Amino acid sequence: MSLPHRPDAPAMSPADETELAALLDLLDADEWPEDLFEGRAFYDQWGTPVAADVRVTERNVGGVPAYVLTPPDADPARTGIWLHGGGYVFGSQTSHGSMVAEAARSTGCAFLHPQYRRAPEHKFPAPVEDAVAVYAALLDEGRAPESIVMAGDSAGGGLLLAALLAVRDRGLPMPAAAAVVSPWTDLAGTGETFTTKEDIDPLLSRSVVDDVAEAYLDGTAPETPYASPHYGDAHGFPPVLIQVGEREMLHSDSERFAAKLAAAGSPVSLEVWPGMVHVWHLHHSRLAKAREALARLGAFLREHGTTAAREGARNEGNS
Predict the structure, then answer these.
(1) Which of 18, 131, 262, 296 could be stapled to 163 by a disulfide with Cβ–Cβ 3.0 to 4.6 Å?
(2) For this structure, is 154 an active site residue?
């Protein structure tokens, strides 16, 4: 089995340590509410305004409401899809729009930000159905698969990987590339770091993870591949970048899925960021390391998307 390529993620500097400590103090000032619906408003408070130079519009894509975030000088021939995190319960344009906008900027194209259905109102597999519907709608509009890249964070990262399983199983062509940040790939919570890193993960706890998993699954076995892509067959995936923080409970979810992709012969690049926490990218306005990670994520998607587009054009010319 070939091992996933592991580029060196930038080390923490004293300035990075200071920024992270200040952020964690800020986030720790308020206690997470027990009620899931109150938790949505609390989670949205983490969001920051979308940069003024990024145009935000709304549209319906495949029956799913979505925001379109278009940075300056966006390449109209390419597009991205970002699936937000939040345990399938939390997360929205308010919490994630600013981060998605910066991912669009670094990738050099507009990103769709679908507002997929969330639990507990909408159980599994509603988010998977919505994610696939958005991608299929872009194909139906005439978008070439090699012009589309996908990304997601936390539960949205797991949702992206589950959607790719479903896209492949439906016989649809894969997008050019995918990137996932701190993906939640195993809702059964069997990864080693669910236990070994719970005490050093300042943002996640086992109780919160278990609560949102129960709300989403509602009796579905957590080992179901479209719910937990860790249990799926990872062959035939496009190039995938996985970024994860060293201090995360979900660290092993990333490590194990990277190994799964490599074993299946699917191209994968794994970055473990020293000292970083769950989806640190959300805090790009406060953390230099978040801005660095978004820049690397965008460069990966841009590079592989451009390569796929060239190959697609070459194949079309030879047909």
Answers:
(1) 131
(2) yes
